[in-house]
Design the sequence.
């Protein structure tokens, strides 16, 4: 449709949205409070994905079943334009994974391959361990100095409400394998990048520099890493027999699931509520991220059920293939990067209570930020001074100028569960999950109806 | 040596123990308080067994290495008569263990074989699940009614300070497999008898009635059991592919490790401080029971180091093959049942703080019970009204009349860890462990020096 340029005062009067009823603060507060009392849809979606599907590794038939499940469920719930947007992706799958200390203190250790790990071959690799306290110590090792060795890298990750321990410890997973390969190592095991004291190692993707040959790269559980460090401290050489046989199975299909509440004003842009439908293969991904899909969908559904059509289209974006490198996000951007994204936001940090809200809005939307803040206050959610980034699957939109809001969840126990076998439904606290839904209702209801100019173009100016 | 019968007044005066210095309340309090400040031996023993040996399944070479380690360490520590007392035992070892829901919601589950489980064979068993809420519901199923099925049995186990949830839920592990086999089942999986919300199923022995053919019997982790129950509640038949291939490897050697502090009066009997050196194979058994061996040994060592020879012999009894059916206890009783056991006690319930003390002493020893109680009070350990049973490896001695004292540990988190892969050194709280050692010092110092008549004969009267 052609845009007609009008003076601003006239333009506002002419907007179709002003023809529709706007939810008042009282309307939004009522929906918010009803969610605190009664929402069960977020939990039901999380229960369905974890029970009826289970682990949903990107590119596998399990992820495809999850998409089908989502499309059926979103259609039943009354959303519009429910669809799968497929894309192809190189797919990595886990194989055998065992680790055993051969000498001097023979015992098994619990290991899991990092995403994109190379393989030891079926017979594994038996080699002496060379230990490094952290990534920087490994980086200081000369090229070629680790020939034939199994490298071990430790680190210290602290649980924190804002999850900041992950960014601090994360390079151990993200880059240490590549550094070890560069220096000639035969394989690498790292201390799990996670805070759990259970013997369930944390997986997650690692990244190989272009020039580097992928080697077998695994994570030991924290208690096993403790044990290995104690063995090494006793002073004798420690040898491990490590077998990791993941493999690439070629290009497979993944997809993004989209569902919408069409807005009253087609020109007012799209408010995106994102989550990701895939999970790592070790667990059914209750926290990461079935609950996120439950939360954003339940919030949008409350707005759908309110009968007040929003000014803007609300688009649910259940991303595929997040864990393995934001491939769904990339595919979405290729297809929808030019859409008029008025706001982007994602729930992908579990389902514990939201403890602060962050904004990245254009100047003209400060009244909206104030309104969201005011309506979130009864949920005990203060405004942060940090800017929003949008969340993993919509970050590319935010960095390209889309306005963003982050409803930040308490991450204190998130990294006990994240990417382990223990990310299961019992970890969801329904009361905290309801607070998430209530907060999302506030945010979507305000921002989908805001009269402010919200678009990537506006913020990019 | 011949006993000479003397009138009681003369007898007391003639006892050799009265020739030795007796520790005063102040002496014992000083040792107790020193342990609260400084003991590190209990932790060092736990660290050594878990780091240098690891899992120590009864009858395996790992258990033999643990005995060797114990003998070396106990000798170095200055104990007397340090020895291994070997015995033969039928030995069961774990094989492959996998469980997968085949339909209608394909996904893997985490399972582990119960001790003495039969095997499914290498190809496993694929069958429909028939679920029972608890053991009594299974018992009510008619004979032959479960032909070819995989039985599932749930239960509800609550964490409790006194560990009483275990006795309540335990029959699910102990007898449900036998009941299922009797009724024709092809295999059985139970909800883990444990309180953990991690996906690490709890093993432990099951018992087969004489007439029953052992079938494959596994435990699902609690989150997996939750998931299976949710699937079943959805109403469609649920099928599982279960593979458990444990096997018996014939008679192997186990052994009990003994170490002593010889008493000044050979006729005054023996005070036994017990623990067990074996563990289940899934974990290094920090709580169960390396810490128990650490605690009783550190307490005895404090008495050895005090330079005050006790009236009675203190005998450390590191039992072998406890987990697999108290085989070390049986072997000890066969060899030592006729020894003059003045007191028996065991530490086999982790290393969290002792919260109460229980006695089963002859009437003439009430002053000793009062003295122990008085000296434990500063450790915030009240006297229980329940009688002592002695602990698993010395219960056979207690039921045959040996006086007993139980220093009961707080079991609130014990069954989160018990018989899982997560029973690792990091779970030990050194401060709480020191309180255990301090309490054991009090108990051993009082009872090894008591003038009361303490013997199985006395209590059996």
Sequence:
């Amino acid at each position: 449709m052609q845009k007609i340029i009008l003076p601003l005062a006239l333009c506002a009067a002419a907007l179709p949205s002003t023809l529709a009823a706007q939810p008042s603060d009282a309307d939004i507060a009522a929906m918010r409070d009803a969610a605190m009392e009664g929402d069960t849809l977020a939990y039901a979606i999380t229960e369905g994905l974890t029970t009826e599907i289970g682990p949903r590794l990107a590119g596998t038939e399990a992820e495809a079943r999850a998409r089908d499940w989502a499309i059926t469920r979103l259609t039943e719930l009354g959303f519009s334009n429910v669809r799968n947007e497929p894309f192809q992706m190189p797919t990595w799958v886990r194989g055998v994974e065992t680790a055993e200390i051969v000498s001097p203190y023979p015992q098994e250790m619990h290991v899991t391959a990092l995403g994109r790990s190379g393989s030891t071959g079926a017979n594994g690799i038996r080699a002496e361990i060379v230990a490094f306290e952290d990534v920087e110590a490994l980086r200081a090792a000369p090229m070629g100095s680790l020939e034939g060795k199994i490298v071990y890298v430790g680190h210290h990750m602290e649980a924190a409400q804002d999850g900041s321990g992950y960014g601090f410890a994360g390079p151990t997973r993200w880059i240490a394998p590549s550094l070890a390969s560069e220096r000639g190592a035969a394989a690498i095991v790292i201390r799990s990048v996670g805070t759990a004291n259970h013997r369930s190692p944390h997986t997650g993707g690692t990244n190989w520099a272009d020039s580097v040959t992928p080697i077998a790269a695994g994570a030991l559980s924290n208690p096993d890493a403790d044990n290995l460090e104690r063995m090494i401290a006793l002073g004798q050489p420690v040898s491990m027999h490590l077998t990791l046989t993941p493999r690439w199975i070629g290009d497979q299909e993944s997809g993004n699931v989209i569902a919408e509440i069409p807005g009253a004003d087609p020109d007012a842009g799209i408010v995106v509520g994102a989550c990701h439908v895939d999970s790592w293969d070790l667990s059914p991904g209750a926290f990461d991220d079935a609950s996120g899909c439950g939360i954003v969908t339940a919030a949008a559904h409350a707005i759908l059920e309110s009968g007040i059509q929003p000014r803007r289209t609300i688009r649910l974006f259940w991303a595929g293939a997040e864990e393995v490198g934001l491939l769904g996000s990339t595919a979405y951007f290729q297809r929808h990067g030019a859409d008029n994204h008025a706001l982007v936001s994602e729930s992908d940090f579990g389902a514990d209570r939201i403890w602060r809200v962050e904004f990245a809005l254009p100047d003209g939307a400060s009244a909206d930020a104030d309104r969201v803040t005011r309506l979130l206050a009864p949920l005990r959610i203060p405004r942060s001074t940090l800017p929003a980034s949008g969340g993993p699957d919509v970050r590319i939109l935010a960095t390209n100028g889309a306005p963003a809001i982050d409803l930040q969840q308490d991450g204190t126990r998130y990294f006990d569960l994240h990417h382990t076998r223990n990310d299961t439904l019992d970890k969801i606290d329904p009361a905290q999950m309801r607070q998430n839904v209530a907060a999302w209702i506030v945010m979507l209801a305000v921002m989908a109806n805001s009269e402010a100019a919200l678009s990537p173009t506006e913020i990019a100016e």
Notes: The interface with chain B takes residues 47, 50-55, 62, 101, 105-108, 110, 197-200, 222-223, 226-227, 230-231, 234, 283-284, 421-422, 424-427 of chain A (CB under 8 Å). Residues 1-19 of chain A have pLDDT under 50 and may be disordered.
